[in-house]
Design brief:
Strand order of the largest sheet: 1-2-3
Structural class: alpha+beta
Shape: flat
Order of helices and strands: HEEEEEH
Radius of gyration: 12 Å
Number of domains: 1
């Protein structure tokens, strides 16, 4: 989760490390924006309030963003 003390460069560095070491997805939560950025090798997508968070890594998983950011 991104907090006010997190610097963009530090977060990006961590994401790159996770992906380099085999993570297939990295979810970055932005509470102030009520959104989630899903990063994966070769791309990313933004899930916004009103959308559902879904992933092919967890068959059948679906969660409304509005349920996360209450």
């Amino acid at each position: 989760m991104i907090s006010p003390s997190n610097r963009a460069a530090a977060v990006e560095s961590k994401i790159q490390l996770y992906l380099e070491f085999g993570a297939r997805e990295v979810w970055v939560f932005y509470p102030n924006l009520r959104s989630i950025v899903v990063r994966f090798p070769g791309g990313s997508r933004v899930i916004r309030n009103g959308d559902n968070l879904e992933t092919s890594l967890l068959l059948g998983f679906s969660l409304k963003i509005s349920e996360i950011f209450v």
